[in-house]
């Protein structure tokens, strides 16, 4: 029983950064912008969050700074792709490379420094319950925030007028413009949200998941987040499911390594989440779930007249 | 003195550069009136209507609304006055529901539940059945148009502008639409109806304004004039109608399709079911049908872009070609004019010479041993330009720089210049002005007279009934037997297009089914 509980307790924080980053990307893609720079924005968020927290001693400032820094990076991407109409794929890849390098540069002086982990929100009474207590009521605020945000995003997209307009921009930018909706502004805001969420995911990594800074510490989670959006067919509810599935997978491979189940090199186990990502993408493409793809995804839009 | 007109446009002028799209146009429409705005492509209809709807600002002239001078500087301002517009090209979002689509077009947001109720009410009042919670992707073209009309009606307009609303409808859907429009007009709303289908205008409208080259040439009552007279007014000269004597099919079939089955592709693909068809030399066979009933699949199978399950399903001069690609079929004498000019019939950014090579290198020997023969290609392109009167900046001009009609003439010329045994042509005159359309029709007739077999896919029934010797209808992937033209009247074809399978045996007159 202890093993299982410990496993479940470990899954939740493993899933949280995936969920945060993927939520941001989901909103951006529903508005029609494919931002492949998630990995880079997460790294910048991670290093900024860490550096500001260490320097100021305030975790809240750290988290806020992480979101701001990644959003600024996203603003650059938005300017390139939405105003100058550069290719979204190329700009996104450049953003990842830029973010990775910038994070390494900023973080050079912080490698190996200690930081206080984000405090757990212990609920008096409830947290002391056996099994359920540590499983559900003893995580830090970002874990709960990620789930609240998933719910809020779902409501926003499907139940509000602003969400409807955002989806319209992603489905058919030309028609949305013809109906008088501000396509470019909507897309800017969506991309900025995506950046802030990637920053939040990064800050969670460097302040809670593994409270330290090391280069490339996101270890491909940004790419997994991108795949998750497709996996979830652009729906926030399924995204939660997918994030926890992948979180579980990444913890499972650690267990498998430790127990030495098979006489395989540890790298093989480390590969599994990424292999599954590829597998999922292949399966989804075979199933022709393409109709769920926002029809204007990745296309530049220039307002004429 | 009658009461003030609902809308009065006086002395409207609008120029783009040196081109006068509208010159001193007067237009007056009374309450409850259904007026037609007629003219060829480029006559200035769209410009005038865009001015009325606030999309464009006029250079000169004034607009009176119920006798009061107004400025309409945006579509929002137009809607605020009570002007509604239904565009020819729908601005609908397929993955969204009817309700969501309507909500996106509202100037003032409304709670979803109240809006759904209003949609139901309006659609019931005017006989436009719509379920607010259905996804647009699952709806037929006629139903999609209903959304646009309901969207316009929700604003309770007192003038409704309709831009070529029937180009995508079956004859039965057109009847339903006309009933609705008459009901709307009876409630006091004026309707400005833009079209170039003269028979429809004569059935619906009580007055018409005819435009030519940006000017009003005449105001008339379309019910008192023949379609031919009105057409002559639109074009400015008497139109030489290409009339074709029905040719009895003779000799062996040059193009034959036998039991062709082909699965649909993509989410909205239509599967072809046991298609049988034969086109003889000297014959034009027309295939009518509403878009999305397997036309794309049939064209892909006939052109060779998709391979058939068995070689013998398609025969070209008796040779099984079902599994050959487009290049091999062209070599055997097949030519193809696809529906989409830019991007399918021609590569937009490339010159006409290059486009001539891409389509005709096999038959016109524009390439040899892997090397291009630019000299010959240039001569070929120049010959096409001359023979088909293609207005362009010379053979070096990029294809995309030509107007739709001129590019179509070029593509048609490129294909006919190869002296094909079989020509497959889709929507040859879509968006082409009347003069160019007449030229294209003449070329097709001439080609058939020289012994080629021509298969014509078109959504324009008038075109099919003018050109084709026999007519078949494609519906949900099945092709009806081809009717000789003298038996293919509008009503019967319309029923077949709507999927009434009894229409062939029972003689007309059966109850028209409401198209799904």
Automatic annotation (TrEMBL), chain A:
<feature type="transmembrane region" description="Helical">
    <location>
        <begin position="188"/>
        <end position="207"/>
    </location>
</feature>
<dbReference type="Pfam" id="PF02653">
    <property type="entry name" value="BPD_transp_2"/>
</dbReference>
<feature type="transmembrane region" description="Helical">
    <location>
        <begin position="93"/>
        <end position="115"/>
    </location>
</feature>
<feature type="transmembrane region" description="Helical">
    <location>
        <begin position="66"/>
        <end position="86"/>
    </location>
</feature>
<feature type="transmembrane region" description="Helical">
    <location>
        <begin position="135"/>
        <end position="157"/>
    </location>
</feature>
<protein>
    <submittedName>
        <fullName>Nucleoside ABC transporter membrane protein</fullName>
    </submittedName>
</protein>
<feature type="transmembrane region" description="Helical">
    <location>
        <begin position="268"/>
        <end position="286"/>
    </location>
</feature>
<keyword id="KW-1003">Cell membrane</keyword>
<dbReference type="GO" id="GO:0005886">
    <property type="term" value="C:plasma membrane"/>
</dbReference>
<feature type="transmembrane region" description="Helical">
    <location>
        <begin position="6"/>
        <end position="28"/>
    </location>
</feature>
<dbReference type="GO" id="GO:0022857">
    <property type="term" value="F:transmembrane transporter activity"/>
</dbReference>
<dbReference type="InterPro" id="IPR001851">
    <property type="entry name" value="ABC_transp_permease"/>
</dbReference>
<feature type="transmembrane region" description="Helical">
    <location>
        <begin position="213"/>
        <end position="232"/>
    </location>
</feature>
<keyword id="KW-0812">Transmembrane</keyword>
<keyword id="KW-1133">Transmembrane helix</keyword>
<keyword id="KW-0472">Membrane</keyword>
<feature type="transmembrane region" description="Helical">
    <location>
        <begin position="239"/>
        <end position="256"/>
    </location>
</feature>
<feature type="transmembrane region" description="Helical">
    <location>
        <begin position="40"/>
        <end position="60"/>
    </location>
</feature>
UniProtKB/TrEMBL annotation, chain B:
<protein>
    <submittedName>
        <fullName>Nucleoside ABC transporter ATP-binding protein</fullName>
    </submittedName>
</protein>
<dbReference type="GO" id="GO:0016887">
    <property type="term" value="F:ATP hydrolysis activity"/>
</dbReference>
<dbReference type="InterPro" id="IPR017871">
    <property type="entry name" value="ABC_transporter-like_CS"/>
</dbReference>
<feature type="domain" description="ABC transporter">
    <location>
        <begin position="7"/>
        <end position="238"/>
    </location>
</feature>
<dbReference type="Pfam" id="PF00005">
    <property type="entry name" value="ABC_tran"/>
</dbReference>
<dbReference type="InterPro" id="IPR050107">
    <property type="entry name" value="ABC_carbohydrate_import_ATPase"/>
</dbReference>
<dbReference type="InterPro" id="IPR027417">
    <property type="entry name" value="P-loop_NTPase"/>
</dbReference>
<keyword id="KW-0547">Nucleotide-binding</keyword>
<keyword id="KW-0067">ATP-binding</keyword>
<dbReference type="GO" id="GO:0005524">
    <property type="term" value="F:ATP binding"/>
</dbReference>
<dbReference type="InterPro" id="IPR003593">
    <property type="entry name" value="AAA+_ATPase"/>
</dbReference>
<feature type="domain" description="ABC transporter">
    <location>
        <begin position="257"/>
        <end position="501"/>
    </location>
</feature>
<dbReference type="InterPro" id="IPR003439">
    <property type="entry name" value="ABC_transporter-like_ATP-bd"/>
</dbReference>
């Amino acid at each position: 029983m202890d093993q299982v509980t410990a496993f479940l307790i470990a899954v939740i924080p493993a899933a949280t950064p995936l969920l945060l980053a993927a939520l941001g990307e989901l909103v951006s893609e529903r508005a029609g912008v494919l931002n492949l720079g998630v990995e880079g924005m997460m790294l910048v968020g991670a290093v900024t969050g860490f550096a500001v927290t260490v320097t100021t001693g305030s975790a809240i400032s750290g988290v806020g700074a992480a979101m701001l820094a990644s959003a600024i990076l996203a603003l650059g991407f938005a300017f390139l792709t939405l105003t100058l109409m550069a290719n979204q794929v190329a700009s996104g890849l450049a953003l990842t490379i830029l973010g990775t390098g910038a994070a390494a540069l900023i973080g050079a002086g912080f490698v190996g420094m200690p930081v206080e982990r984000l405090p757990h929100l212990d609920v008096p009474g409830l947290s002391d319950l056996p099994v359920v207590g540590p499983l559900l009521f003893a995580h830090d605020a970002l874990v709960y925030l990620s789930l609240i945000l998933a719910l809020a995003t779902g409501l926003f997209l499907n139940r509000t007028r602003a969400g409807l307009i955002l989806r319209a921009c992603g489905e058919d930018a030309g028609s949305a413009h013809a109906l008088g909706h501000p396509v470019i502004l909507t897309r800017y805001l969506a991309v900025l949200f995506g950046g802030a969420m990637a920053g939040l995911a990064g800050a969670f990594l460097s302040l809670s998941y593994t409270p330290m800074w090391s280069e490339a510490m996101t270890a491909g989670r940004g790419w997994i987040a991108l795949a998750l959006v497709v996996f979830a067919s652009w729906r926030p509810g399924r995204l939660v499911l997918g994030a926890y599935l992948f979180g579980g997978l990444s913890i499972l491979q650690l267990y498998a390594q430790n127990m030495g189940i098979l006489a395989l090199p540890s790298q093989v186990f480390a590969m599994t989440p990424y292999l599954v990502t590829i597998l999922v993408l292949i399966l989804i493409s075979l199933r022709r779930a393409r109709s769920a793809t926002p029809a204007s995804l990745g296309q530049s839009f220039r307002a004429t007249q | 003195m009658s009461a003030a007109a609902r809308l009065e446009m006086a002395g409207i002028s609008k120029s783009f550069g040196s081109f006068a799209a509208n010159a001193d146009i007067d237009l007056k429409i009374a309450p409850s009136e259904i007026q037609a705005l007629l003219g060829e492509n480029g006559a200035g209809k769209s410009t005038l209507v865009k001015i009325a709807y606030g999309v464009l600002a006029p250079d000169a002239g004034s607009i009176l609304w119920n006798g009061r001078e107004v400025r309409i500087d945006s579509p929002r301002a137009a809607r605020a006055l009570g002007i509604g517009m239904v565009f020819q090209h729908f601005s609908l979002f397929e993955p969204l529901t009817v309700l969501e689509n309507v909500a996106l077009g509202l100037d003032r947001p409304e709670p979803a539940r109240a809006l759904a109720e209003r949609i139901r009410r309006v659609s019931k009042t005017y006989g436009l059945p719509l379920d607010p919670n259905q996804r647009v992707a699952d709806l037929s073209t006629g139903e999609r148009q209903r959304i646009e009309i309901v969207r316009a009606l929700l604003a309770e307009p007192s003038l409704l502008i309709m831009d070529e609303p029937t180009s995508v409808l079956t004859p039965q859907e057109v009847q339903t639409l006309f009933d609705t429009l008459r009901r709307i007009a009876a409630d006091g709303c004026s309707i400005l109806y833009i079209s170039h289908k003269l028979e429809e205008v004569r059935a619906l409208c009580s007055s018409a304004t005819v435009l030519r080259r940006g000017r009003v040439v005449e105001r008339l009552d379309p019910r008192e004039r023949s379609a031919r007279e009105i057409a002559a007014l639109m074009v400015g000269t008497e139109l030489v109608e290409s009339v074709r004597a029905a040719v009895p099919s003779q000799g062996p079939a040059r193009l034959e399709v036998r039991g062709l089955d082909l699965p649909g592709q993509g989410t909205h693909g239509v599967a072809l079911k046991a298609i049988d068809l034969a086109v003889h030399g000297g014959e034009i066979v027309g295939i009518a049908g509403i878009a999305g009933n397997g036309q794309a699949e049939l064209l892909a199978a006939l052109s060779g872009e998709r391979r058939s399950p068995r070689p013998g399903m398609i025969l070209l001069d008796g040779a099984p070609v079902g599994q050959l690609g487009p290049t091999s079929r062209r070599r055997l004498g097949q030519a193809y004019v696809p529906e989409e000019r830019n991007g399918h019939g021609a590569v937009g950014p490339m010159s006409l010479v290059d486009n001539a090579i891409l389509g005709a290198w096999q038959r016109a020997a524009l390439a040899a041993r892997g090397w291009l023969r630019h000299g010959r290609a240039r001569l070929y392109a120049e010959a096409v330009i001359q023979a088909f009167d293609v207005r362009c900046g010379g053979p070096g001009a990029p294809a995309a720089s030509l107007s739709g009609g001129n590019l179509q003439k070029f593509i048609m010329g490129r294909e006919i210049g190869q002296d094909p045994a079989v020509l497959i042509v889709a929507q040859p005159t879509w968006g082409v002005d009347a003069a160019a359309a007449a030229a294209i029709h003449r070329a097709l007739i001439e080609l058939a007279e020289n012994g080629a077999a021509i298969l014509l896919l078109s959504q324009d029934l008038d075109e099919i009934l003018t050109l084709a010797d026999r007519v078949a209808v494609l519906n949900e992937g099945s092709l009806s037997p081809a009717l000789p033209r003298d038996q293919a009247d509008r009503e019967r074809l319309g029923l077949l297009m709507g999927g009434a399978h009894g229409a062939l045996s029972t003689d007309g007159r059966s109850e028209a089914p409401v198209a799904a």
